Structure formats: C-alpha cells, structure tokens
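Fold it.
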Amino acid sequence: MKICVIGCGAIGTTIARAVDEMPDIDTTYLTDRSQECATRLQERTRKVKYIPDIIPVLPEIRLVVEAASQDAARYYAPLTLSAGVDILLMSVGVFQDEEFQSDAFRLAKRKSAKIFIPSGAIGGVDALSAASLDIMDEVTLTTTKPPSAFGPSAYLESKGIVPADIRVRTEIFHGSAREAVKHFPQNINVAATISLAGIGFEKTMIRIVCDPQVKTNEHNLKAKGKFGELDVVTRNVPSPRNPKTSYLAALSAISAIKKIAGQTWVGI
C-alpha cells in the first residue's frame, strides 16, 4: 500500500517515521512547503520519498494523510477526494466551516472515497459516537493547557490575554465548539472531533483553561443522554517536537493508518 503524508511538522514527522516500520506500507510520499524539511526526513527513513506535488502520484496511492494545517486541509481534501482517494485529516477544525463540511462529505460520497477522522488527543470518542445515536442532553469539553501550548491568537489579543503572563489557573474561553475552533485552530482540534462524533458544533460547549501549574494537555469530556453519563479525562504529554501538539494525536493517526492498511479494527 502506498500513502502520502502532507506536512513534516511534529505530527507528520512522527507518522512518517512510524509507518516506515509497517510492513503493509510500501511507500510513503511526503510533501511540505519546506523542501529542506521533507528531504531531511527522507534521508532518515527508508520508505519516505519527497514529492513537490501530489497530483502525479494520486492514481497510485490509497490514502492521503493531512498533518499540516486547516489551509492544507481545505486544499488537499477536495483534490484527494475528487480523485477517489481516501483522506485522513488531522486538522479537523476545518469542518467548523459548514459549507466546506457539506461539500467534502458530498464529494466523498459521489467519488466513493472515505474521510477518516482519528480520535486525536482524547479518549471516549468511540463511546460518544455510539451514544449520539439516541437522545443526547449535553456534551461539554474542558481543555486545560500550560501557557507554552498557546501560540499567537487574535482572540486572546482582543481580550488582552497573554498566556505567558498568566500565573494562576485562568479560563480564557467559554463558548460553542464552532467558536472555539475558529479562535484556536491550532489548539482545539479535539473540539471539532467530538462535535462531529456527538451533537454538532453549536450544541457542544467548550471551556479552555490556561494553567501554569500543569505540565500536560488535559481534556475532560462529559456527556449525558439516554445512554447514561460519560466522564473521560485524558492527560496528554505534549509532543517533544511541538508543545502545542499532544503526542497522543500523532499516535491516534498512526493507529488509524495501521487499521486502514490491515484487516482488523477494534473500537469502531
């Protein structure tokens, strides 16, 4: 099986190195805006091959893995799906755009291609997805991260909030998942994932907390419905390559690729 990874940042690099050891993966094409970064990763792996453009290889690959940004997802998802090729998206926040989500889902159906959304940096997505098949009363997510996990943000600047200056546990956002994903595109893909798995972007409520005392990225998912109650806490170690990213997010993508390339799925 041949795949293509978009992006050689923290997640893309971790994925490329992991699939290099998977016997079911023959070739991993890699593209990135930085040719230097991509070729350096190619030199350190056996199956990775840098390509400046994925269009020539689309006919021979089975899966595209987007691990770059929402902008990359907006460009590569339609391109990939139009070719009838499956895509795994890490920048799930792109789906807060209702028009893009609707267009992508329709295109996938028309071209008989699949859109894979890994669980990312949180546990309980499988249970939430199953529970949402019946009446759901509420879904809430509280995300707590250290100041170093927050990059530049126009929203925080407008509120006069500087994460690096925070000395005590502080709530910096409270609102719908749609708003959270829009204001924190690099920090809150988890909100988009649980929105898609559960009751949608408008009804899913998000709290974002900055706490200088924590050293992990914590996600507390709570849900109530006809199924009962769900309360899941995931404390993630930040990626050693990027403190804004949880290591578990990369591992969830690797696990998904292993399942797609293999014959057995557990926890679907």
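The longest helix spans residues 247-261.
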